[in-house]
């Protein structure tokens, strides 16, 4: 009976580690895609140090989970106590790091409000100055998602014009409609857009557009994160049970 229980535990351990292995492979693939994607997302990530760091953290976490899942599978099948102990210690560290990140994300969630982004845009945006990281990032976002400001073009009425461009329009070029949504895309009618003709402007705010675009993925990511934490917890329990059961 004890042998059957140990055998069952071993294969359950293998199963959970196989899911960790797949989750790590997905994170690794997603991290690589974010960094090398040529459709404009890479430009946004590269322009923002926080996003740039986050992409590499995701890449590192994916690689670590990929490796640990592989080690856990080997430790379970071969009944190797050293591999099982190594797996348990590292999966525990990852589990605690992910739990801490989730708690911090919950605590600082108020920094993702519409009001926060509007305040930051009006305070730091320098219009078409692409040497400024903040402005370049916002311009890339507006071009990529065909949107304007946080709430709409009216956000830029409070943004001062650059001192060397007194004739500059209140609406930045990034808000003008393009035939192709990229920096190389041809404007539909740039002059009319900058003089205030609404039908040549992207009128919808980026907050709503991005929220609608990623709403499904946010819930999916949240559910996936909870699933990963649960799998890691069960994997640690099975690892310790298997470790103690191996003679």
UniProtKB/TrEMBL annotation:
Gene3D superfamilies (alphabetical): Tetraspanin (1.10.1450.10)
Protein name: Tetraspanin
Keywords for the protein's UniProt record, in alphabetical order: Glycoprotein, Membrane, Transmembrane, Transmembrane helix
Record carries keyword Cell membrane: no
Membrane topology recorded in Swiss-Prot or TrEMBL: Multi-pass membrane protein
Compartment(s) of residence: Membrane
Source organism (scientific name): Eolophus roseicapilla
CDD domains referenced in this protein's UniProt entry, alphabetically: uroplakin_I_like_LEL
Similarity remark: Belongs to the tetraspanin (TM4SF) family.
Transmembrane region(s): 12-36, 56-77, 84-108, 217-243
PANTHER family attached to this UniProt entry: TETRASPANIN, TETRASPANIN-18
Keyword set includes Membrane: yes
GO terms under cellular component: plasma membrane
PROSITE patterns given in the database record: TM4_1 (PS00421)
